[in-house]
Amino acid sequence: MRRLLAGLALAAGAAALTVPGAGFAAGQIAISGTAPNGGCGPVKAVTLRDPSSVGVHVALASRAGTPLRIQVLDAYGNLLASSAAKRGANDGRWNLEPGTYGLVACTNWQRSVRGALTYAGSVNINDRTPTPLPIWSVLAAKVSVTTRALGSGAVRTPHGLVWFELTANQHGSYVQMSDPQKGKYFRQSLVRTPVYGVGSVAIANGSGSFLLSTKGLTQHVTLRAPGYSISGNVVQGRFTLQ
């Protein structure tokens, strides 16, 4: 997501939230927007002065069966954290350090969905409590080896968009590719764990191979299968690597 949130927060004051000093109630703000099928809605910029607990709730206005996830971006649009995808509505909560962040809702691509999807919800910000909470903590972006990946994204070709859906974790992996213009579809499930790298995941067996890699804000997908191959940058949607 190529957006400089720091500039966005300063240029559009209504979209940014400045939390008062420690000891003050932080309050609640609304989040809403429209996301394309398999893509993300507008970024909600939030500026925190103190360590805070940030909770986000969003729900789709229609198509309740569509998977929805919430992502946290840093001030330059880099992905810091993401919730798992849930159908119709989702909640996420993170411990965040002072700084500017972007909150965004994204949908997983569904073949049965036509057109954009509207969602609405709220962002609740509270002073950080010293009591440990069962939530993720985002302290800073750091280089680490990927251990799981999920999401959906599209690669542009001369005849249209080719969509991919990916789930990969310690239990195995699942990859699906859809190229309706050429009538090509590919599904691959593996019980064994994928091969992970720094910002990458590779899945392969006798029926084909799939590679997702990241460089800065760019994600690149390569698929090799009997009688079909494709390679290109992700132009819609996004994969979450953690």
Report how far apart the termini are. Answer: 16 Å
Determine the strand fraction and express it as a percent band.
over 45%
- Helical run tally: 1
SSE topology string: HEEEEEEEEEEEEEEEEEEE
Shape: globular
CATH topology of the largest domain, anyone?
Answer: Jelly Rolls
SSE class: mainly beta
The total tally of domains equals 2
> Per CATH, which architecture of the largest domain?
Sandwich
Provide an overview of this structure.
- It is a single chain.
- With 242 residues, the chain is an all-beta fold.
- The chain folds into two domains: 5-138, Jelly Rolls (Sandwich), CATH 2.60.120.380; 149-241.
- 3% of the residues lie in helices and 57% in strands.
- It is globular, with a radius of gyration of 19 Å.
- Mean pLDDT is 75; it is low at 1-25 and 130-143.
